[in-house]
């Protein structure tokens, strides 16, 4: 099939590349000329594991190309994906101006039947809005609007796209339904479902899924906070709970609060939708409040340890990205932690395998960026672990002890075993578990 993808952000680029991989001819269009030029030269604007191989193969074999011209991109396309940003406005509602603006342009360009697909996360009722804009200048026989939300996790987006748990298609048109079924069949060979539903339910499914997951994490964060007070170990509680098949083991890890480009934005947008519908969505209100607190928790622990005086102290930070395997720092808990530590007078030496360039754009020389995780520890008064990159999971504790001024670790991701940290002579504070005190001397030989 011929496909146009409008918007080459994270979702658009992964979507376009993966559709090319199953043999479709995909043209990605973006208004950003520099970005399009870079992509034409083989440069991928985002870090996403596995995308490079697919990108290279499909551009080389002519199935994936880039343009700034919307008319060229859609001319032969049977399907047009809208993968445009929906940033939160001041009131938390999703800003639809990009999507509706492109819909307006399309209404003048479309000449033969096309399926217009909303891939972006959009509030319930958006596909009707897109439909109405298109219908202003177009015969309704010439298009259908479909809602097809994405469920891609950054860091594993290619895998999620190629082997989705489910594909959600919201449409009331049987013609569009057939086109979408044909397009997605190669991705669900293992038997996972393509779920057809109405447009509004599809739009709601995305918000419900993300808000539920954000709630689940937040619930675990609160359980962890209570475990600390009750001297229970949240890791044990998590496994005990997760072994119930009704609960399941995944997505129960307490930490430094959820971040990223989706959860905070989507929870807020659903709250906003609820308010507009005069529904008081109480759980979501609590989720946002708790998450704001949880993002500060690690900084709070550090400040408490140093009696609120961080003047002259240096804190090493491992991990800046909002989660591992991405360079994305949108709503990253690390930023909130850094702000609070800087405000309390601390110096920061930070290391992240991929996200340092992005953080540097914001902080400049307000914090130090180190080339290596151990270099960040040299002369630091404590280490704070914020992102659970694999490379932090089995460090040399000996080297850590040698480099840190004191063997003091604040772990926001519960990476290490408590007994091990005790044996290794660390003062170790984590989330929802008892603090570990230095077992022997503070600097074993
Ligand atoms: C999420 C959804 O998972 C995805 O389906 C959707 O399309 C986009 O939003 P993503 O933002 O890439 O994906 O990250 P995800 O892996 O879901 O993690 C979100 C946040 O939750 C991160 O800050 C992560 O650290 C946190 N998290 C996740 C936890 O704190 N504990 C967990 O157990 C899982």
From TrEMBL:
Associated pathway: Nucleotide-sugar biosynthesis; UDP-alpha-D-glucuronate biosynthesis; UDP-alpha-D-glucuronate from UDP-alpha-D-glucose: step 1/1
InterPro entries according to UniProt: 6-PGluconate_DH-like_C_sf, NAD(P)-bd_dom_sf, UDP-Glc/GDP-Man, UDP-Glc/GDP-Man_DH_C, UDP-Glc/GDP-Man_DH_C_sf, UDP-Glc/GDP-Man_DH_dimer, UDP-Glc/GDP-Man_DH_N, UDPglc_DH_bac
Residues the record marks as active site: 262
SMART domains, sorted: UDPG_MGDP_dh_C
Binding site for substrate: 151-154, 206, 251-255, 259, 323
TM annotation in the entry: none
Catalytic reactions of this protein: UDP-alpha-D-glucose + 2 NAD(+) + H2O = UDP-alpha-D-glucuronate + 2 NADH + 3 H(+)
Root EC class: oxidoreductase
Keyword Metal-binding: no
Binding-site residues, NAD(+): 30, 35, 86, 121, 154, 265, 330
Keywords, comma-separated and alphabetical: NAD, Oxidoreductase
Listed EC numbers: 1.1.1.22
Residue span(s) of domain UDP-glucose/GDP-mannose dehydrogenase C-terminal: 316-418
Biological process according to GO: polysaccharide biosynthetic process; UDP-glucuronate biosynthetic process
Molecular functions (GO terms): NAD binding; UDP-glucose 6-dehydrogenase activity
Similarity comment: family membership: Belongs to the UDP-glucose/GDP-mannose dehydrogenase family.
Full protein name: UDP-glucose 6-dehydrogenase
């Amino acid at each position: 099939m011929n496909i146009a993808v409008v918007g080459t952000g994270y979702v658009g680029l992964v979507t376009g590349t993966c559709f090319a991989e199953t043999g479709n001819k995909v043209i990605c269009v973006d208004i950003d000329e520099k970005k399009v030029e870079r992509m034409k030269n083989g440069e991928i604007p985002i870090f996403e594991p596995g995308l490079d191989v697919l990108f290279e193969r499909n551009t080389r074999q002519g199935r994936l190309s880039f343009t700034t011209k919307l008319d060229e991109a859609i001319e032969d396309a049977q399907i047009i994906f809208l993968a445009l940003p929906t940033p939160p406005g001041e009131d938390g509602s999703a800003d639809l101006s990009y999507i509706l603006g492109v819909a307006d342009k399309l209404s003048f360009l479309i000449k033969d039947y096309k399926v217009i697909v909303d891939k972006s996360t959009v509030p319930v009722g958006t596909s009707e809005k897109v439909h109405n804009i298109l219908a202003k200048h177009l015969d309704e026989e010439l298009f259908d609007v479909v809602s097809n939300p994405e469920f891609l996790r950054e860091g594993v987006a290619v895998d999620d796209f190629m082997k989705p748990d489910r594909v959600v298609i919201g449409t009331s048109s049987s013609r569009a339904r057939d086109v979408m079924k044909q397009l997605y069949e190669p991705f669900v060979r293992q038997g996972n479902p393509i779920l057809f539903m109405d447009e509004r339910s599809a739009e709601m499914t995305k918000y419900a899924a993300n808000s539920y997951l954000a709630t689940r994490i937040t619930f675990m964060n609160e359980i962890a906070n209570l475990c600390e007070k009750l001297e229970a170990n949240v890791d044990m509680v998590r496994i005990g709970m997760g072994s119930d098949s009704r609960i399941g083991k995944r997505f129960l890890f307490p930490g430094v609060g959820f971040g990223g480009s989706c959860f905070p934005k989507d929870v807020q947008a659903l709250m906003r939708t609820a308010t507009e519908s005069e529904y008081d969505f109480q759980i979501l209100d609590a989720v946002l409040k708790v998450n704001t607190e949880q993002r500060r928790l690690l900084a709070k622990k550090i400040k408490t340890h140093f009696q609120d005086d961080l003047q002259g102290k240096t804190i090493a930070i491992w991990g800046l990205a909002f989660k591992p395997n991405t360079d994305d720092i949108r709503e990253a808990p690390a930023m909130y932690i850094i702000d609070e530590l800087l405000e309390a007078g601390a110096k920061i030496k930070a290391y992240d395998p991929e996200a340092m360039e992005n953080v540097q754009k914001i902080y400049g020389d307000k914090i130090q960026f180190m080339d290596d995780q151990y270099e960040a520890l040299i002369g630091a008064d404590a280490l704070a672990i914020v992102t659970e990159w694999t490379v932090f999971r089995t460090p040399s504790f000996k080297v850590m002890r040698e480099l840190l001024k004191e063997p003091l670790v604040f772990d926001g991701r519960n990476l290490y075993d408590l007994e091990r940290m005790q044996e290794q002579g660390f003062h170790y504070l984590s989330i929802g578990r008892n603090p570990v005190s230095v077992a022997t001397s503070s600097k074993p030989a």
